[in-house]
Amino acid sequence: MRQTLRRRLQALAAATALGAVLASCAIPIPEVDADPAPTDPVPVMDESRLERVLTSLEETIAAADEAGDATLLESRVAGAALRVRTAEYALATATASSDAPYVVQPLTGLADVEIISNTESWPHTIMVVTEIPDGANVPLLLTLEQTTPRDPYLLTNWIRLFPAITMPATSIGSIGSPQVPLDAEGLVLPPGQVVAAYADVLTNSASQYAPTFAEDNLRTALAAELTGLSTAVEEAGTVANTVSASADPILTLATDDGGAIVIGSMAMAQVFTKTVEDATLEVGGRLEILAGGDGEIDETLTATYEQMVAFYVPPAAEGAQITVLGGEHVLTAVAKA
Predict the structure, then answer these.
(1) Which of 226, 241, 316, 234 has its CA nearest to residue 274?
(2) How many angstroms separate the CA atoms of 292 and 333, rounded?
(3) What is the pTM of this model?
(4) How many Å from the N-terminal Cα to the C-terminal Cα in the chain?
(5) Cα 109 to Cα 54, 85, 206, 223, distances in angstroms
(6) Backbone phi, psi, residue 317, to 5°
(7) Of all helices (H) and strands (E), which one includes residue 125?
(8) What is the rounded average pLDDT for all residues in the chain?
(9) Is 27 helix (H, G, I), strand (E, B) or coil?
(10) Does residue 316 contact residue 188 with C-beta atoms inside 8 Å?
(11) Which residue(s) pair with 237 in the sheet?
(12) DSSP 315
């Protein structure tokens, strides 16, 4: 028994000695330093992921367009874009048998230029200048928003760029573009004031902000339409446009020259008022159709339009003006009183 115990003790001593030798020969495990935090901002999304998002968006829109069903858009479309597309489906259905049926605007997710924000906070904003969609003659400017890290990117605006418009230069995709604070100074107007100021210009030709904006296609077209309508109804009544900024978020991304691309939405109420008691005041076309097929106005008729508009706001300088890059203008409702 003593021999057995002695052998065990000798084995234990040998194992301990071997352990000591191995410990003395062991190679120290190097400590791994954590990756340093990036010193430069980076885009919130890479191009391959953005391509997948845009492909999914295009497929969703195609399915909804084919069915004429706006509920199919809700997984990928929100805000002004969803309201306008819903109105377009309603217009197309209501006017299908008329002499001038409404054609839903062609959309595409095929990107030509990608402007990706590099903010570390949410929401994240991405703007995409598309290729020219089939059936159209100008490219689109899309806005995509991600509200929280767990939310998908949703299309919130699409805007047809005006012919001959040159988009301001922005940072390349590997760097990304900062989102500009709505109260940022040093611009012709702070971004948060741009949409409301432009709405005032569309409402009032003598607006104090009129010189702040260069002439543009939307402003010119609405002024010409209002002049023509006023002449047409002057023997029986009046017509007036009132435009106001919507409650939708105003989106911004910086340009390379220190300016900003600003995108927002507005609502326009076009009000026809009968002022001559014995006269007849009537509207036709789509207004008549959405009024239930009766275009005669006893008191007032209000046509409501949704507008999505994009602006380039340059740095403040003598003579600098805000450029309207493009817009979308769609009839959404008609009501009589």
Answers:
(1) 234
(2) 11
(3) 0.86
(4) 113
(5) 5, 15, 39, 32
(6) -165, 160
(7) strand 124-130
(8) 90
(9) coil
(10) yes
(11) 274
(12) B
CA angle 308, 224, 336 (to 5 degrees): 70
What the block records as the tokens of 186 is 């040093």
pLDDT digits (tens, 9 = 90+) for 16-66: 444 443 344 444 554 555 555 555 678 888 889 999 999 999 999 999 999
Q: What CA dihedral angle connects 216, 176, 77 and 246, to 10 degrees?
A: -50
Report d(CA 191, CA 38) in Å as an integer.
28
Torsion angle in degrees (nearest 10) through CA of 117, 164, 270, 77: -30
Amino acid at 124: H
- Neighbouring CB atoms inside 10 A of 32's CB total 6
Reading phi first (left if > 0) and then psi (alpha if -120 to 50, else beta), residue 258 is in: left
Q: How far is CA 42 from CA 172, 296, 317, in A?
A: 11, 58, 30
Main-chain dihedrals φ then ψ at residue 183, nearest 5 degrees: -100, 20
